[in-house]
Every structure is written in structure tokens, then in C-alpha cells.
Design goal:
11 helices, alpha/beta, 8 strands, two-stranded parallel ribbon
Length: 250
Amino acid sequence: YDVYSLPFKNKIWRKYMTDVVSNADKVITISGANVDYLKELTNEEKKLELVYNGFSPRLFHPIEREIARKELGLNEKKRICVAVGNVIRIKGHKDLIRAISLLPREYDDIELYLVGSGPLLGDLEDLTKELGLNNRVHFVGVRPHWEIVKWMNSADLFVLSSLKEGAPVVALEALACGVPVIGTRVGIVPDIINSNDYGYVCEVSNPESLAEGIKKGFSKKWNKEKISKYGLNFTWAKATEKIINIYEDL
């Protein structure tokens, strides 16, 4: 369970988790949203420490889009959105597919590639067929981690449509590749997309808002170098340094 879920299941769990937080010298969490939830369990806000998750710059870095698409066999002339994650309800893939269907006709050349698999895959395939998007929404399945960097770099936009999140590392990996993120207002997304230079934040469970974010994403000229440089603020090395500092302070 996550900190935004377990303490609020019932009174018993709330007491357990309040005791844990109360007896800790420091509580490290991974998003500003989680900090807000933890504030409901303690009056000692000073003990709460925010340390974002990270990514490995050895694995995730910019690659020329044309090269990435060629290696994956993707059409170089299409406008491409990529989403990476388990195909489960909380990832909001149905909202994302509906968002693609809501785009005006001038966006008919946009294709969506969903990387990942899970129990809702059949439902998503049925929805895609129902909306007449068979030629525009592609289900890639599970891919090896080393290949994900190619999918990130092949994208014009990386889209995260989750209903709830803590700190989705895939968003950090996309930024590291210099790809703008269109993400819902969950977990760290509002923290990291704190400027329209890096992407746009959309409303949760709102296909119309996602569609608008995608439209804005394709109407903007992005600075890949600036985005990837910004992404370097979220490496595992940076996270480790912060954690070490917290222990040294204690």
C-alpha cells in the first residue's frame, strides 16, 4: 500500500501509521503530495523529508528521434505519443485512449504507443476498436528495460494518464531523454512539471483535459536539450546524496 492509501483505510490503520510516524526521527517520502498526506498524521512537519525517486543517466539519455524510430520500425513522419506502464485501472489508459479519439481531425496523424501489459489489455483493445482507433493506438506489450529508452526518444510527447501515483519514474526517464511530459495532476507530476518548458499538467480522470494537453504539446516547439538538462536534477545519485545528508544530520 501507499502512504496516501493505507493510513486512511480505517481507524486501526490510521493509529498504526500515526504511531510509526510519531516514533520516527525522520520520515522520507517521494512526492509533495505524499508530504501533504503525512501532515495529516503528525504535527511535526520538520521531520518530513522530501526526496524524489530518480533514474539512471547511464540508461536514459537523449537519442536522435529519427534513429530511435528507425530502430523500432516506427514511421518517421507520424506524430507519436508514448505511454509506459502496467495496463491496470489506476494508470488511466482508458482516459488516454478516449483523449486520442477527442482530438480534432487535424491531429489524425497522431499515433499512440502503449508499452506494457496487464489484466485490462483486452478491455483497452475493445475500446480502441469501438472508437475506430485500430490504426492509431498500438499495444507494444512488455519490453526489456534497455529498450524503453528508444521508445522514450521516439516520442514527440510522453503521456502519463494515471489516476493516482506516488513518484512515477517513467516521467523522470522521459525528461532525461529530452521528451516533454503530458501528465495528470498526481504524485510528483505537478512538482516536476513546474514550467511549461517541460510539459503540461492535466486533470485526473478527464479525457478532455488530456486531449487539450496533447494538443498544446503538439503546438509548441520544445527544447530537447533544455528538457534533458533539467531531467538531470532527478538522478539516483542526487537522491542518494540527499538521503546521506539526512542521516548525517541525525
